[in-house]
Every structure is written in structure tokens, then in C-alpha cells.
TrEMBL record:
It is found in: Cell membrane. The keyword GTP-binding does not apply. This is MFS transporter. It is a multi-pass membrane protein. CDD domains: MFS_MMR_MDR_like (cd17321). The chain crosses the membrane at residues 23-46, 58-76, 88-107, 113-136, 148-169, 175-197, 209-229, 235-253, 274-296, 308-330, 342-362, 374-394, 406-428, 448-471. Pfam families: MFS_1 (PF07690). Residues 22-474 form the Major facilitator superfamily (MFS) profile domain.
Amino acid sequence: MSTQVASPTHPPLRRTYSRWTSLAVLCAGTLMTILDGNVVTVAMPAIQSDLGFSGPGLAWVVNAYLIPFGGLLLLVGRLGDLMGRRRMFAAGLAVFTAASVLCGLATGQGVLIAARAVQGAGGAMVSAVVLGMLVALFPDPREQARAIAVFSAVGAAGGALGTFLGGALTQALGWHWIFLINLPIGLAAWFAAVRVLAPDGGAGLGRGADYPGTALVTGALMLTVYVIVGSGDRGLTATLLLAALALALFVAFTVRQARVARPLLRLRLFRSRLLTGANAVQVLMIGTMYGFQFIGALYLQRVLGYDALLTGTAFLPAPIAIGVLMLGLSARTIGRFGPYRVLTAGLVLIVAGMALLSRAPVDGSYVTDVLPPLLLLSAGFAAAMPALTGLAMSGAREEDAGLASGLFNTTQVVGGSLALAVLSTLAASRTEGLLGRGVDPVVATADGYRLAFRVAVVFAVGALALAAGVLRPRGK
């Protein structure tokens, strides 16, 4: 979500309604996109069985959403400045809702993946402008802090509700309803947005946006994930050629940003040690957490035999703990000890939690083998994420705050999608190899997931080492 500070060219939101009513509308729209990410995770096995996805191919149900979402955040944030944020927000709700219906009606892999990509574009349109609208609505710093706290709590609650709803809907009605449920929510949010939120003029599309740059970076990201996910299904030569093409697209994007008059991403941002380091740490940390959520849900269902509803219920403590700790402790802890120490402590907890989860026994118990690492990972993320965000934003100039926030959210999505592609591919390859040697299917599946968890431990250790080397305050 791109934090864009209101300027004189953006008039304040409508005052005929309570500002808190307007905040509720913004939260409702964002809640729908948050619900979607968590709902899908629990329904993965059902989608795989119904549509015949391979193990690595199943990751595209998530990645097809994440890649357009991450790739378009910078562009649609800029377009929101140019054409008006309310207009972008409402348009995003409409796109997301329509795509959700298409997902719910999908009967084949191609239709579902294509609709998920459109969902990702709609989610980016909503998320890229919502914090900028919130800042304009609550200019007073203390009120703004309270509003952001409420917004963050809604995000955490959405995670908990999404995981549970995914299990309940899949169990009772089928996986199609995890998408169809967005239709009434989306329509209500759209009508409320049009009615409650006041139009903001925008700077005008004549100011321009870097559309070719967006095409280059989005294509590079999508091709990178495709190379990783499909590496086991093609030869080494083809894989290397596709990887080289992805690298060439990234290079072309970088060159264009250095030369174009109105770049999508101003390269001077990367001169900041804190901003660059925080984004690099986030890629590894979010990759670890995506591994926990995605592979963990599959482990509960494919190895421990949980149904969809029980899996959703099993994950409830994680987002609840994250939300409670973020609202109750994070700000005070960071104020007392500083963001670097809190970040380091959080990453240590994430490493410990992932290391415990990497045991993943075939005959595991939720109470002894799943819940303890789940709580450690939740506490670690609740401590690390706000601290990391503060460090990243402290490294940006005031005039670059919106762009820096967009970049931070983009690397969050990119880190999750790339890590998910790597972890799911490794797990599937390991399982298939063991099955070819006659190993019991459940044992082979558990071993594949253990490999994925161990690689996620490496991600977490890398994040901790990078934070210690790059983000440590000078002179310490």
C-alpha cells in the first residue's frame, strides 16, 4: 500500500460524513483484498484436486495474483495522483469484484489463473491509494496515528477472518465460494465509496506516467517466477534462456528509469542505506512468512489429515497474535529500545519458529509441533514488521515518502511470490523423487515440506544477517 501524502492539489475528503465513516469505507475496501489472500491459502488442496494442478503449478493460483499486484503498485499509485484517488479506489473495487466472480465461476486452470491476475490488478488499484486518502482525511498527527492503528487492526483481523472463512466456505459450500463471497462485499464497498468519499481532483493525466517502465518490470517479475516454477518441467538450456531474458528486462527497466523524464521509480532512492537494506531484509523475511503460511497449510491437510475448516481454525492464533501485539506493544517497544533492536529480536524469533517448524514429523501433533512455532513466528513478525517499516521510511526524503512506501510494498509482494515459487517447487521436486523410489506418499509429502521449511530457515537467517550488517546504527 503506497503512502502518498496529501498536497494542495488534492482537496480534502468530503466532510459531510464523519471522517471515521470514511475510514470505515477505506477499511472495508482493503479488508476485501486482505481476506482474499488468506482465504485462498486454505482452499489450495481443494482447488488442486478439482482442477488438476501440479504441485508447482498450484503456486500460480497465488502468484498470478501477487505478481500483477506487486508490479502495478507503483504505476497505479502514480495514476491515483494524476486522475484522483477516489476514482482509482472505486475503479479498483469494481475490477476486483468482477474478477472475483470470474474466479468463482472458473472450471479450468487457465480461466482461474487469468481471473486471479485481474484480481491482482484490482487489488493494486485499491491498495496503492488508500493510505494517501487516510492521510488526507486525518491531517492531525495524533488522530492520524489512531486511524492508522485502526487500519492496521483491520488488516490483522482480516487475516484471521480470511483463514477461518476459507476453511468454513470450502468445507460447507466448495472452494468457488471463497471468491463469490466477494460479490456482495465488493458491491457494498463500491456504493459506499461513491457515496461517502469526496472526489479529489488529481494533477491531471497530462503529467504522464511511465507505462513502458511498468510493462518492463511487471514482465520481468512474471517471467522470473515462471522460470522458477517451471524449472522442473523444461531443460536446462530453456531455463537459462528464460532467466537471461528476465534479467535483460530488469536491466532495461533500470536503464529506462535512469533516463526517462518521469520515471516510475527514481533510482536515487537506492542511495539510502536504510531504505535499500530494509527492502532487501523484507524480501527474505516475507519469503519466510509466506513459506510458513502456504506450505504450513498444505502440511496440515496433506500430512496431518486436517480438513479445510480445521486448517483455518488452526491458523487463527497467528493473525490474532500479530494484530494484538502490533497494536498493544510494537509502538511502545520501538520507542523504548529503537527500531533496530526490535527488528533484530523479531527476526531471531522468526528464525527460531521456522527452525522448530522444519521438524514437521509425519505423525505430528498440532499442540507440540505446529502451535509453538506458529506463536514464535507471529510474535517475531509483529515485532519486526513495524520496526522494519520505520527504518525504511526514515531513509527516504520527505518528497519521496509516497514512492518509498510504494517500493516497500512492492518488495513485500515480490519477496512473497518469489519465495513461494522456490519453496513450492523444491517441495514438489523432493516429493516426486521419493515417490519414484517407492516411498509412502504421506512420508514423501512430509519430507518435501520439511525441505521447504529448511530453505525458509535459510531465508530467515539471511534476513537476520543482512539486518545486522546493513541496518545497524552507525557507530555501534
